[in-house]
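Q&A log
Question type: sequence-to-structure
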Amino acid sequence: MADKTKDIKKKESDIIDRVEHTRATQVYTPDVDIIERQDSIVVTADMPGVDENTVDITLEKNVLTLYGKVDADLPEKLRLLHAEYGIGDYKRVFTLSGEIDRDKIHATVKNGVLKVLLPKAEAVKTRKIEVKAEA
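Response status: OK
Response body:
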């Protein structure tokens, strides 16, 4: 049973060792799925507890940063006796290639799942080339 517990624990961010944070909270690396479509790349990140007001996405040069802020939500006059789920922020950083149209990136969040759509630039999209018979 102990091995299963290790597998489900959230991964602590290795970035925490290299960056000073102003909040005294744990920072986790969210699990992501990256799917390439013909015209875009979709990044889906699991960030339980975040919503559109607590997630921040920045793009600086070629670096896309996803940051989600989560606060412990305990009822008043109660104290936590035991917790198996860690509460903390999320941070994930990606380096983008030149094939992404930076002006058309957009994101949505629903039930703690963040989806970031990275449209491909027109120059790199797959296109059909017509072949004609030579006379």
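Response note: The chain has one domain: 8-123.
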